[in-house]
């Protein structure tokens, strides 16, 4: 597809602005580890929140949503919409705890919470496991989307896409560190949102589609528009509602939706200037991620069913695309080829923005693990701040090279999504309980991580040769959750607990609520140590439930407005208003400003 001069001018201008922001931030980035990887811990909530939203607005996200809608309908998105519960739990329970911990990375948490050589091993191993292996798999999925977009929109080869976009992303990430990433994210998010909304408007009004009303009445589209799956169809209900809400949200681990917080979300919270900013940032992230962004992608996905009813029609329209990449998720970039000159340049820039914001975050986050939790902790404990920054920068380049190589071996965004979900199956409850139950130890986490990975690899490479009945994805996920959870629970009971002194120090620093720390709390009281009142878990859970109804009703309201379903819109808006009032009433008990609160009890 040929781009016009104005398209190229817009894209070049986008690259110039992005690189300039990196140069601007570079004046402070290289001073210390904290400046480079935590932006000095002085970022405001709205910038951090937008940065998290921009990060999850990856180039592969519209493709993933399009693939889901074409295969399972709009209701198929519950496979990721259910992660809202995980995110809101982080907002109202864990955001303050992370900021209060004072760690530089979420992996440093291990040697704050646990004791002995096992804690050090866990920290070092996960620095490589998450920072390199897992991180590169996630980035590869994003790069794969970039490859498909580049192939369809500008006729670029996979190698060209990796080299050009990867080089520019690495440059501004190297220059500006986390501050540069956050500032760039804010600019890129505006561009990305404008591009996705504009694209939805144009494709919806194509002659083949005939406007929104005609689209929603189309025979093939009408069956895909339901916001909830058919409750009489257990084949759809179990994987889309039952498993995500009963099991997946608390038991699984997925980047950006880690139970108990973690990863780049924890990095943003640690970069906040206060507990209040950490909490508000994660709340903004959840609201925008689930309520604001999905509908433009969904509209394009529904329109693609009319224009490209099957994979053969996509392959016919783009014969030069490698057949291995022709999956349902390719329909999104295919629809963008219908955009007019000028707008096409803006939309391509918006997709590049989505690509770069995600990759830059993962590069900076992964490099922080390598530099701080592996290099300084195990290789060079006396490393200077400048040496740590240099190590992080070299790690950034290496991670990009590895991720680019892995991307060439993947076929679809859903493939990567399913692999990551399976690898994390059964570990989520550990990350929730370790804050609120003193008995969780380093062996617990090592067991959960090892067993879940082994089960995932077995299902991926060994199960088909056993002759056992075939299991679908949710059955594999549930199997992994059950086996992994039982394994780490058994190990927790039979292995020695964490030494008492680290536990006491952790409790006094973090002040977690609940009955899970009663043993430690009583020991501190008996020794005459003043113990501050723990946070109210009940208050946090009440706010979490109110916010859950608020965000979901806002999501539904947007959908019913587009569907012109006025009765359902009135109901969803009423629920939205009632939820907002409930959240407002529960908000004061959360003491998010970090100031001393009135005693609330420890449940």
TrEMBL record:
User: Which keywords are on file for this protein?
Assistant: Membrane, Transmembrane, Transmembrane helix
The GO terms this record gives for MF are: D-glucose:sodium symporter activity
Q: Which InterPro entries match?
A: Na/Glc_symporter_sf (IPR038377), Na/solute_symporter (IPR001734)
| Sequence similarity | Belongs to the sodium:solute symporter (SSF) (TC 2.A.21) family.
Instruction: Determine if NAD is one of this entry's keywords.
Output: no
- Any single GO CC term annotated in Swiss-Prot or TrEMBL for this entry: plasma membrane
Q: What is the membrane topology listed in the Swiss-Prot or TrEMBL record?
A: Multi-pass membrane protein
The identity of this protein, by name, is: Na+:solute symporter
Give the location in the cell. Answer: Membrane
Transmembrane segments in this chain: where? 6-24, 36-58, 78-97, 127-147, 153-175, 182-203, 294-311, 331-355, 394-410, 416-436, 443-462, 474-495, 569-587
Q: What is its main location?
A: membrane
State the organism named in the record. Rhodopirellula bahusiensis
């Amino acid at each position: 597809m040929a781009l016009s001069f104005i398209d190229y001018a817009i894209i070049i201008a986008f690259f110039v602005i992005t690189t300039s922001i990196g140069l601007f931030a570079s004046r402070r980035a290289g001073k210390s580890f904290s400046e480079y990887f935590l932006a000095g811990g002085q970022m405001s909530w709205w910038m951090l929140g937008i940065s998290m939203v921009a990060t999850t607005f990856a180039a592969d996200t519209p493709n993933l949503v399009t693939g889901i809608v074409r295969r399972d309908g709009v209701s198929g998105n519950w496979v990721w919409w259910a992660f809202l519960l995980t995110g809101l739990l982080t907002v109202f329970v864990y955001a303050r705890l992370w900021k209060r911990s004072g760690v530089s990375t979420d992996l440093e948490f291990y040697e704050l919470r646990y004791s002995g050589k096992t804690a050090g091993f866990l920290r070092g191993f996960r620095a490589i496991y998450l920072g390199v292996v897992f991180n590169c798999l996630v980035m590869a999925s994003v790069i794969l989307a970039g490859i498909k977009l580049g192939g369809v929109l500008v006729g670029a080869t996979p190698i060209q896409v990796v080299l050009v976009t990867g080089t520019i992303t690495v440059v501004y990430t190297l220059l500006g560190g986390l501050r540069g990433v956050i500032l760039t994210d804010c600019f890129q998010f505006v561009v990305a949102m404008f591009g996705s909304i504009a694209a939805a408007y144009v494709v919806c009004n194509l002659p083949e589609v005939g406007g929104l009303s005609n689209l929603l009445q189309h025979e093939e589209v009408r069956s895909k528009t339901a916001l909830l799956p058919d409750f009489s169809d257990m084949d759809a209900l179990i994987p889309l509602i039952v498993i995500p809400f009963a099991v997946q949200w608390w038991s699984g681990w997925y980047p950006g939706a880690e139970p108990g917080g973690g990863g780049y979300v924890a990095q943003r919270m640690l970069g906040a200037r206060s507990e209040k900013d950490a909490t508000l940032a994660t709340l903004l992230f959840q609201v925008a991620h689930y309520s604001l962004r999905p509908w433009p992608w969904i509209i394009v996905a529904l329109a693609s069913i009319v224009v490209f009813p099957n994979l053969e029609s996509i392959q016919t329209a783009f014969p030069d695309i490698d057949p291995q990449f022709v999956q349902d998720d390719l329909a999104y970039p295919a629809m963008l080829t219908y955009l007019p000159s000028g707008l096409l340049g803006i939309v391509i820039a918006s997709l590049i923005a989505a690509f770069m914001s995600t990759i830059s975050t993962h590069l900076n986050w992964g490099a922080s693990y390598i530099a701080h939790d592996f290099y300084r902790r195990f290789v060079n404990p006396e490393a200077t701040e400048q040496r740590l920054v240099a190590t992080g920068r070299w790690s950034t380049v290496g991670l990009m090279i590895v991720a680019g190589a892995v991307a060439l071996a993947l076929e679809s965004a859903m493939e990567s999504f399913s692999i990551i979900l399976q690898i994390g199956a059964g570990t989520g409850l550990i990350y929730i309980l370790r804050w609120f139950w003193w008995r969780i130890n380093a062996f617990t986490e090592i067991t959960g991580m090892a067993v879940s990975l082994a089960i995932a690899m077995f299902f991926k490479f060994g199960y088909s040769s056993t002759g056992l009945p075939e299991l679908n994805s949710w059955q594999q996920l549930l199997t992994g959750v059950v086996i992994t959870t039982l394994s780490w629970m058994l190990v927790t009971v039979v292995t020695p607990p964490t030494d008492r002194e680290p536990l006491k120090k952790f409790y006094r620093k973090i002040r977690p609520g609940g009955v899970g720390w009663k043993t430690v709390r009583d020991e501190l009281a008996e020794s005459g140590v003043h113990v501050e009142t723990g946070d109210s878990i009940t208050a946090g859970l009440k706010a979490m439930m109110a916010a859950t109804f608020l965000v979901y009703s806002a999501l539904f309201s947007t959908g019913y407005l587009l569907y012109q379903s006025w009765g359902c819109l009135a109901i969803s808006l009423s629920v939205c208003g009632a939820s907002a009032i409930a959240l407002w009433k529960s908000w004061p008990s959360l003491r998010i400003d970090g100031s001393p609160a009135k005693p609330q009890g420890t449940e």
